[in-house]
């Protein structure tokens, strides 16, 4: 008998067909709407494997419904949506999809940095709204990217990939991290500093840490107060690593110059969120890894992890 699996969001046919070869597959067929909790509670009781996404909260009470679940395969590198301690206590494997999205997420992080620094979205709206009446010297002026200082908080794979892009723009790169990375420093020509120094000296601060109890609000009022009034904050990690209320206060009082945000504490971010009222915020809907090839690679890797788990193998990308 084939193992049973449930997929919480419509995946491309090519991935589902591969899964169907070895598994009995049920899938939430809607592409844009997330699976309801009710359906998830029913489905999780029946299956050996679950393939989920960052928008699904897989908590202990949901896992309590599962009687023979072996694996939760998250189609993401981050896994803060899953209670991994509860999974581990219940002997359920949890996997993620690292590596395949590194370059694409670094591309988007740099694109967001550029769009925010040079006010691209605001400029485009200005033109479309008929506000472009003439050329004038200080029209829509932004911040220089070339030759500036980039501070990266969290030097993992995506951080390293971001450095390569920054070097192409002659940026000086500072980083802070739980542990110092001497080899990376030497190879990429970057400088390790403490978080305070990084915040004080950087023109651009990019947060690239996973969301954990230790990194929650790693950028809060005190950190924002250390930044330059001309500096730009970029967050493509997780909403919870930046205190949004403190960020709103810093941006609206011009304590920092602008922010580019791909992620929010609550997603989708409510359209009446105070941050969205600010012209110096560029906000995009969690699209860091969203290129066609990368999303396909992530789906395929999540499928491979899942198949390994339900067929009794140890998946390569086991988180816990
Ligand atoms: C991840 O992989 O963690 C991203 O945030 C989802 O693309």
Model description:
The structure is a single chain. The protein contains 12 helices and 12 strands. With 320 residues, the protein is of the alpha/beta class. The chain has 2 domains: 114 residues, Rossmann fold (3-Layer(aba) Sandwich); 182 residues, NAD(P)-binding Rossmann-like Domain (Rossmann fold, 3-Layer(aba) Sandwich). The strands form 2 sheets. The protein has a 7-stranded parallel sheet with strand order 8-7-6-9-10-11-12, with helices on both faces. A 5-stranded parallel sheet has the order 2-1-3-4-5. The longest helix is centred in the last third of the chain and has 19 residues. The model has no long low-confidence stretch (mean pLDDT 98). Bound molecules: (2R)-2,3-dihydroxypropanoic acid. The site of (2R)-2,3-dihydroxypropanoic acid has 7 residues, from loops.
Quick synopsis:
The chain has twelve helices and twelve strands.
């Amino acid at each position: 008998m084939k193992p049973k699996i449930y997929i919480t969001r419509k995946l491309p046919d090519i991935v589902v067909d591969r899964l169907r070869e070895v598994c009995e597959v049920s899938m939430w067929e809607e592409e844009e709407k997330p699976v309801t909790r009710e359906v998830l509670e029913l489905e999780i009781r029946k299956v050996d494997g679950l393939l989920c996404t960052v928008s699904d909260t897989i908590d202990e009470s949901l896992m309590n419904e599962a009687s023979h679940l072996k694996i939760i395969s998250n189609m993401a590198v981050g896994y803060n949506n899953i209670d991994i301690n509860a999974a581990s206590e219940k002997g359920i494997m949890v996997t993620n999809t690292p590596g395949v999205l590194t370059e694409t997420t670094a591309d988007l992080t740099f694109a967001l940095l550029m769009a925010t620094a040079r006010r691209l979205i605001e400029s485009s709206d200005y033109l479309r709204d008929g506000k472009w009446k003439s050329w004038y010297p200080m029209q829509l002026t932004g911040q220089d990217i070339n030759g500036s200082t980039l501070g990266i908080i969290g030097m993992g794979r995506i951080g390293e990939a971001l450095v390569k892009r920054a070097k192409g723009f002659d940026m000086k790169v500072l980083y802070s991290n739980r542990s110092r990375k001497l080899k990376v420093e030497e190879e990429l020509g970057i400088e390790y500093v403490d978080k305070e120094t990084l915040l004080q000296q950087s023109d651009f601060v990019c947060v690239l840490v996973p969301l954990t109890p230790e990194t929650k609000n790693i950028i809060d009022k005190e950190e924002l107060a250390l930044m330059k009034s001309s500096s730009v904050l970029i967050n493509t990690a997780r909403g919870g690593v930046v205190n949004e209320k403190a960020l709103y206060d810093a941006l609206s009082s011009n304590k920092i110059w602008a922010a580019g945000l791909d992620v929010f504490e609550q997603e989708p971010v409510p359209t009446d969120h105070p941050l969205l009222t600010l012209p110096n915020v560029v906000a995009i809907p969690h699209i860091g890894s969203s290129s066609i090839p990368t999303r396909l690679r992530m789906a395929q890797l999540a499928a491979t992890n899942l198949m390994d788990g339900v067929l009794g193998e140890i998946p390569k990308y086991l988180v816990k």
